Amino acid sequence: MKLFSLTTTALAGVASLAFAIPALAQPASDTVDWTGPYVGLNVGGTGSNTQVAPGAATTNQLSGVSAGAGAVTVPAATFNTSQMDFSHTGVTGGGQVGYNKQYGHIVVGVEGDMDAVGGRSGQFAGYSLPATGVTSSSSVAIGHFTEPEWTSTVRGRVGYAMGKLLVYGTGGLAIADVKEGAAYGYAPTTTAAVATANPGVAYGPYSNYASRDNVLTGWTVGAGAEWALNRQVSIGAEYRHADYGHSTYDFGSGAPDTTSEAARIGFTDDQVLAKVNFRFGPGMF
Length: 285
Prior knowledge:
The chain is mainly beta. Helix content is 9%, strand content 66%. The two termini are 38 Å apart.
């Protein structure tokens, strides 16, 4: 509902902008030739989804601490992690450039665009570790975060023209710059023997953080419609779904009292855009 509201507002804004631009008067004929190059702007709503696949994490547990009879060595603990799914909605905006060629009612073309994307989403999960020689229990918290920065596509378009109205399908290559982050917390509960042997010493909680900024590639498909206002300006709306597959992120740390994992993370997004295009050449009317 939030995405629909953002998109409705964006459509109204772009339409107002297009009508305000000085341009030639509306033609008397409904005959339109969509052939020619164009550049334009877009704004709209975006909804992204992140999936962290089930896997395993390793915590370097509290070790080398005296429990009264000398230091106790505790090995690292590896445990299974559960799947995470989280999403984010926000505003996106940018520009596009393309070229159309019309054959009767059929219009084919190519378009490239690039849009800035903001926002951050994430999710936490908690895990328990068994007792060791120096702890009666321990808890580990794992959080994953996604921060998309921009998206870009290079797509083919195939449409059907009905005078001033063009409806089309589109698909092609999708590219996105996405930052993936992971935060880890480790909270050991020491035994009474450790507390007695080390009076006044606090052990934890401990934390560590890692992030990776990757440029992802995938595919996108969608559909849209465009309306010719006059010889130079057209407005439209477009929906696209993009899937960037899964990538493995090595959030590693060998330091004491830290947690690490090789997380397999998938990213998809959906965009609903309001668009205004400015056309060149004799193709329109």
